[in-house]
Amino acid sequence: MGYNAYIFSPFCGLTLSCGPMGGMPVEKKQFAVIGLGRFGKSVGQTLCNMGYDVLGVDRNGERVQEMVEVLTHAVEADATEENVLRSLGIRNFDVVVVAIGKDLQASILVTLLLKELGVGYVLAKAQDPLHGKVLHKVGADRVIYPERDMGIRVARHLVAANIVDYIDLAPNYSIVEITAPKEFVGKNLRQLELRSRYRVNVLALKRGKKIHISPGAQDFLERGDILVVMGENDDIRRLEQQ
Questions:
Q1: CATH code (residue 154)
Q2: Among candidates 236, 59, 198, 29, which has minimal Cα distance to 123?
Q3: Residues 83-97: pLDDT tens digits?
Q4: Which residues contact 241 (CB under 8 A, 6 or more apart)?
Q5: Distance between CA 71 and CA 75 in Å, rounded?
Q6: What is the DSSP letter of 11?
Q7: Domain boundary among 86, 116, 144
Q8: 28 and 135 both lie in a single domain
Q9: What does the alpha-carbon distance between residue 233 and residue 172 come to, in Å, rounded to a whole number?
Q10: How does pLDDT run across 32-62, given as a tens digit for each residue?
Q11: Closest by alpha carbon to 5, among 117, 108, 86?
Q12: What is the per-residue pLDDT across 158-215, written as a single tens digit (0 to 9) for each?
């Protein structure tokens, strides 16, 4: 059975009826976001703001219409249908984000279909550990827990006011953005001896809108500077307490 996807494009301002999406440049990553709830909208809009082409898919027409002027393309379609995904040329996308909300069966089925159709990298949103385990089993390359992760971030901010942001690398390792403590201001990295004292590595130094990758030992810290450091969580906590 043939299928026409109705694509709302901000570039032409028209509703177009078309077949499989193809012919996109291969030198730039292409993203698709399936499920345009709060999480899916946020991911898609952020990627577009970064200059990437993003296809948004949702079977709710109102959600699709809301994203017409935001995403590169927005499609009203049921992604649980294999022929629909084929018609959208989903296998041509480098990364597909499964951001379906409470319909666990749909998120699992879509993830399975995406991998069977040959999508290289599938990131799926999970509601809980059991849901996440199933998503891994059916082929998701990465599973994330937005609500849980946000709760952890909020808790970290509450107990450590100088923490700006952090990324978990592994159960015991993180990358953290930390505002330079006042004791660090006016000193250079050699004097601070962060590697020997705290066993953390400084990856970057952020000063206002500028970022200095791999700062040297002679770089001095100023008030308001943000250090991007990597290390074991226990060592990072010791640094936070300064």
A1: 3.30.70.1450
A2: 29
A3: 999 999 999 999 999
A4: 160
A5: 10
A6: T
A7: 144
A8: yes
A9: 6
A10: 999 999 999 999 999 999 999 999 999 999 9
A11: 86
A12: 655 565 666 666 678 888 888 998 999 999 999 999 999 999 999 999 998 898 888 9
